[in-house]
Amino acid sequence: MPTATLNGTELHWRDAGRGTRAVVLLHAFPLHSGMWSRQIEALAATHRVIAPDYRGLGGTGGSPEPSTMALLAGDVRALLGHLRIERAAVVGLSMGGYLALELWRQAPGLFTGMVLCDTKAGADTAEGAAGRETFARSALTQGLRWVADQMTPRLLKPVPDAAVVTEVRHLIGEGTPVGVAAAQRGMAVRPDSTPTLATITCPTMVVVGEEDGLTPPAEAEKMVAGIRGATLARVAGAGHLSNLEQPGAFNEALTRFMAGLAS
Ligand code: MLT
Predict the structure, then answer these.
(1) Helix, strand, coil shares of the chain as percentages rounded to 5?
(2) CATH number, domain at 90?
(3) Per-residue pLDDT tens for 76-114?
(4) CA neighbours within 13 Å on the CB side: how many for 197?
(5) In what order do the strands lie in the sheet with 204-209?
């Protein structure tokens, strides 16, 4: 898997497919680009698929500074510049959705389309941000097994498939405590993207697992109402990680949306 030093960090990404149309997949916290394996497989026949790891997660080098959405969007733009990709559809799940909205603010001309999955537009409350700081400190002292114990039940539907639990714990285990803490601290200071929704002019689909407890369907409906022409795909039998819990239904919605985009 390729790596390069870009934007001051050793960036790692997955690069598949040879299509002339590109798609960028932005992962959830605290996983890495490996969570997209089934989507990469589904899209690679028709698209060039790029899926980066964020700082300190997966194979990308970490640093203690907060992984703000602005910093990570700079990493993604540096990567696309390195790969000479000027236009792409951007798909983000949860933290990846926060990042997609920041990327839209920084580089709207990049987007051929946008897919916002199991995410929300609002910023953290003061209480939510304080909780992230507590989590960040615990991750640094207690390690990734503790992170997996905390996060896995929140990321999946109330009665999850055992194989998906194992996969999610494995993906979390390939990060670093420093990367987990940096991501929490970066998300804690992310801006409110609600005003951004009305500025979105590219074709947009919002996807939500019907059993998503972290960013429930009501959040998805609010985003759809705020983005002109956006459509909603609800995924039955899925929690927050709808792409992992119901890859068949998720991929059907995703590939249909991608097929409808202009190149
Ligand atoms: C994620 O799935 O990326 C996180 O749960 C997002 C968050 O903590 O807000």
Answers:
(1) 45, 20, 35
(2) 3.40.50.1820
(3) 999 999 999 999 999 999 999 999 999 999 999 999 999
(4) 24
(5) 3-6, 9-16, 47-52, 21-26, 88-93, 111-117, 204-209, 231-235
Q: Has residue 188 got a pLDDT over 70?
A: yes
The number of beta carbons lying within 10 Å of the beta carbon of residue 91 is 29
Q: Does the beta carbon of 36 lie inside 6 Å of ligand 1?
A: no
For 90, 182, 192, the CA distances from 99, given in Å and listed in that order, are 10, 14, 12
The finding on whether 94 has its CB within 6 A of some atom of ligand 1 is yes
**Residues 104-160: pLDDT tens digits?**
999 999 999 999 999 999 999 999 999 999 999 999 999 999 999 999 999 999 999
Enclosing domain of residue 186: 3-259
Ligand 1: atom nearest CA of 214 is: 5
Report the atom number in ligand 1 closest to the C-alpha of 28.
3
Q: Point out the ligand 1 atom lying closest to the alpha carbon of residue 132.
A: 8
Confidence (pTM): 0.98
Residues pairing with 88 in the sheet: 111
Please state, for a pLDDT cut of 70, what percent of the chain lies above it.
Answer: 100
Total domains in the fold of the chain: 1
d(CA 121, CA 98): 7
**Residue whose C-alpha is closest to residue 115's, from 198, 220, 212, 189:** 220
- The confidence band for 19, taking pLDDT boundaries of 50, 70 and 90, is confident
